[in-house]
Amino acid sequence: MTTRTLAVVSGGLRQPSSTRLLADRLTAATVDALRDLDVDATVEVVELRDHAHDLTNHLLTGFASDELRAAEDTVAGADGVIAVTPIFSASYTGLFKTFFDVLEEDALTGVPVLIAATAGTERHSLALDHALRPLFAYLRSVVVPTGVFAASGDWGVGGDAGGALASRIDRAAAQLAALVAGAPPREVADPYDAPTPFEELLRGGG
After folding, report:
1. From CA 194, how far away is CA 118, in angstroms rounded?
2. Mean pLDDT in residue range 39-64
3. Of 79, 140, 157, 201, which sees the most CB atoms within 10 A?
């Protein structure tokens, strides 16, 4: 059985959060779908709430803390990504966008990504295709055809009427699993392994 890594980026701002709940359900479904394809999955979760201050500092200084850099490396080195954000004012949160702003250039090029979102009302569902999909297209990721949106009415007693949310989760997970299973494991070069010699930097500056 081959092994692939999944990075789960959860942009929920509260604990507990429906965003993390959706992320966990998508992860479980993807792991099951990979297992059906004879692929074992290693899952690493990046909870953006834990890196909020470090993300701001990174924007202001250009330097990432050790914890934030580890989170960036987790996502950059994954064979597939599940990215879930709450929707505020018809788009992803600033915290969610900031994380993908500070990733290294080309970190997600060619990487399969499953996009998902949560919100209080179904009116925000178009944000999947109007905000998240263009973001990851710009990052040159391979976004799976099915995005998953969950409104407040999909949770709790009487929620998920007819299993519609569960069906979307399973369909999106199967699409992500197929892409991840069919791709070779990623080998991401560390830019710090071969730094530019200081003499060359001086010549460039002159």
Report:
1. 41
2. 95
3. 79
Ramachandran area for residue 98 (φ above 0: left; ψ -120 to 50: alpha; else beta)? alpha
Q: How many CB atoms lie within 10 A of CB 173?
A: 25
> Please, which residues have CB within 8 angstroms of residue 186's CB and are 6 or more apart in sequence?
5, 77, 78, 79, 111
- In the predicted structure, residue 194 carries a pLDDT above the cut 60: no
Do the Cβ atoms of 116 and 151 come closer than 8 Å? no
State residue 14 phi and psi, 5-degree precision: -125, 165
- Which of 28-37, 84-93, 159-168 is predicted with the least confidence, judged by mean pLDDT? 159-168
Please tell us whether the domain made up of 2-205 is placed in CATH 3.30.110.170.
no
Which CA distances in Å does 114 have to 5, 27, 83? 14, 10, 6
- Reading the block at residue 171, the tokens are 């369909």
| Gyration radius (Cα) of the chain, Å | 18
Q: For residues 118 and 193, give the distance between their C-alpha atoms in angstroms, rounded to a whole number.
A: 39
Whether residue 95 contacts residue 55, with contact meaning beta carbons closer than 8 Å, is answered with yes
pLDDT at 183: 72
